[in-house]
Automatic annotation (TrEMBL):
This is HupE/UreJ family protein. Keywords: Membrane, Signal, Transmembrane, Transmembrane helix. The keyword rRNA processing does not apply. The chain crosses the membrane at residues 145-162, 169-191, 197-216, 228-248, 260-285, 297-315. Residues 1-16 form the signal peptide. It comes from the Bacteria.
Length: 324
């Protein structure tokens, strides 16, 4: 039953938060002159071999490079008198598993936002971007972030195992949704701030806590988490919201469309979460119909496995804290 859902997640567990997009921003400072920010994910000391290219005439200044945690950043100036109508392509993107979020901001206040993928590594820069384009891009980014954010999904899965009644499950998932929506909005808009490295470690620790509560419940020691899982979901959901905000800060928000992009990113996260919950419930229903005969110890496997993976993440993330 739940073992089937966990078996689907386990091969992906080791790559939690490793699917990070590259980011390209062009901001028009003077007519036909753009300041360029190019941020590329790194694995250890190695960076992805990606390079932006334009179909029309452009001239670049000397690039200034620096390295931050997990990414290489380059700045330069691009002279492009006729950027609108050109095709932007990312050389080397088709050979990777990452995406590129590209954004162009013009002096007149208009902008263009586009997501480039290994299957579609190029796009034509239109005369103007629309609110619908921004909404669609950030909706897809939200869905992809939650479906590839395996730590968030493991937390939701642990809550589902902890919660045995459908009514309580709805209440618990709703509490988690409300909580992380609050901190996602507050952190993204700059009202609150939390350092990302400790947040990621505590997110992993929250999964360990819920897994331990499952073990305690099955052993006859029913705690507050088993009696009122929505309280745990809300409390830790606030932390998970900071995690979502950290991912969104790496992507960036388009000037002039910040509330719209934030709303649709959050909507995408919720849609992806609902898809995951529905998939787990369908797997459970299918397993019951198959009348599988499992050994007595099998129901204990998911909690121990989830807790073990989450404890590994906790230690790993603490070890990666930046030096003071």
């Amino acid at each position: 039953m739940i073992c089937l859902a966990f078996a689907w997640l386990l091969p992906m567990a080791a790559i939690a938060h490793e699917v990070r997009p590259a980011y390209l921003e062009l901001r028009e400072e003077r007519p036909g002159e753009f300041s360029v920010l190019w941020k590329v994910p790194m694995q250890g000391e190695m960076r992805l071999g990606l390079k932006p290219a334009f179909s029309g005439e452009t001239h670049e200044s000397v690039r200034v490079s620096r390295t931050v945690s997990g990414a290489a950043i380059e700045h330069w100036t691009l002279a492009a008198p006729a950027l609108r109508g050109q095709t932007l392509s990312i050389d080397g993107l088709e050979a990777t598993m990452t995406d590129v979020l590209a954004r162009v901001e013009y002096l007149d206040g208009t902008s263009w936002t586009q997501r480039l993928t290994p299957r579609e590594p190029a796009a034509a820069i239109p005369l103007a971007d629309t609110a619908l384009d921004v909404a669609w891009v950030y909706l897809k980014l939200g869905v992809e972030h939650i479906l590839f954010g395996i730590d968030h999904l493991l937390f939701v899965l642990a809550l589902m195992i902890l919660t045995r009644e459908l009514g309580m499950l709805v209440k618990t998932i709703t509490a988690f949704t409300v909580a992380h929506s609050i901190t996602l909005a507050l952190a993204t808009l700059g009202f609150v701030h939390a350092p990302q490295a400790p947040v990621e470690a505590v997110i992993a620790l929250s999964i360990v806590f819920v897994a331990a509560e499952i073990v305690h419940r099955d052993g006859g020691r029913v705690g507050v988490a088993a009696r009122a899982p929505w309280i745990v979901a809300f409390g830790f959901g606030l932390l998970h919201g900071f995690g979502f905000a950290g991912a969104l800060s790496e992507i960036g928000l388009p000037q002039g469309h910040i509330p719209l992009a934030l709303f649709f990113f959050n909507l995408g996260v919720e849609a992806g979460q609902l898809v995951f919950v529905a998939a787990v419930l369908l797997l459970l229903a299918a397993a019951r119909r198959l009348r599988l005969v499992l050994p007595a110890w099998a129901p204990r496997v998911p909690a121990y496995a989830i807790g073990s993976v989450a404890m590994f993440w906790t230690i790993q993330r603490i070890a990666m804290f930046p030096n003071p």
